[in-house]
């Protein structure tokens, strides 16, 4: 079983970072690895059970992910992969934000677990780590542009 954990301090308040990251359907609008993201069947992007569909840039196929939980009170979301063009199974990820009491920043953490063939695990782990890290970097870039 593969496991990934990534954390970061972001140069945004928890409310600013959450407003950016909670939109489950907006992934292709800001993450450089993905494009053409949308929520299937026109459902709201914060509706539990909604499915986001997006393509991976540079011919990497497409993904479908289902929102399992979303809490504005806890600044947390959980989702699972329904389809990926890789031999991954049982992928579930969760992201949570926490306030930092000093300054206008917040702490984010993102983790995932899934089954992947042993010979593909190292590459899969690096791929997911890079994706999570880039999400947090996108929050910083978005917030820095607004200053």
Automatic annotation (TrEMBL):
Lineage: Bacteria, Pseudomonadati, Pseudomonadota, Betaproteobacteria, Burkholderiales
Species the sequence originates in: Hydrogenophaga laconesensis
Pfam family, one: Polyketide_cyc2
Name under which the protein is recorded: Polyketide cyclase / dehydrase and lipid transport
Superkingdom as given in the UniProt entry: Bacteria
């Amino acid at each position: 079983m593969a496991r990934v954990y990534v954390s970061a301090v972001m140069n945004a308040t928890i409310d600013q970072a959450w407003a950016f990251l909670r939109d489950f359907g907006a992934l292709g609008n800001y993450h450089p690895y993905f494009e053409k993201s949308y929520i299937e069947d026109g459902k709201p992007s914060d509706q539990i059970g909604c499915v986001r569909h997006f393509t991976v840039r540079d011919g990497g196929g497409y993904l479908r992910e289902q929102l399992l939980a979303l809490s504005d009170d806890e600044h947390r979301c959980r989702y699972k992969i329904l389809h990926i063009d890789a031999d991954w199974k049982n992928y579930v990820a969760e992201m949570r934000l926490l306030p930092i009491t000093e300054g206008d920043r917040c702490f984010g953490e993102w983790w995932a677990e899934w089954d992947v063939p042993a010979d593909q695990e190292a590459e899969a782990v690096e791929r997911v780590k890079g994706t999570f890290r880039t999400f947090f970097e996108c929050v910083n870039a978005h917030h820095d542009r607004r200053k």
